């Protein structure tokens, strides 16, 4: 049986089972990796990997995780409201978000 996106997001955000969480490090879904980065039950290794994710939405959140020991300097980036967004990933609707700003 296949899990829905919301079920995967729930696991990424809340699970304490590292064996369930580690495979999510390699998912193509940015939103799943972002939820994983915000999970305070991930270990230091996972948090540090996510801190250098190529997607700022993920890496920024990972550096805010208390288990992250790597320091990233984001001062060279103009962080959009999307990167700084604190909404639960299970409730995000980026397409219709009022706070969304497009930087070109």
UniProtKB/TrEMBL annotation:
It comes from the Bacteria. This is Uncharacterized protein. It comes from Malaciobacter mytili LMG 24559.
